[in-house]
Request: fold
Amino acid sequence: MIEKLHEAGVRSEWAYAGGFASIALSFAAWGVSRLKPSDARDQSDRWGIFVGHWAPTFFALGVALKLEENND
Reply:
């Protein structure tokens, strides 16, 4: 799968950027949840945690793509 992504032109830098963007989005979702009434905070907090879990996936894809780029 990583080879196919590489052949399609996906770069490791894009995956790393996605990881950092998901961290920023997670903090933004958490920050917005602090502004909501207390009954809506739980769901917003869960959304922030969910988005935060994307970061390791993007970083792992970045490493795998970097290894594929180095094999060329």
User: Anything to note?
Assistant: Residues 6 and 52 are 25 Å apart (CA to CA).
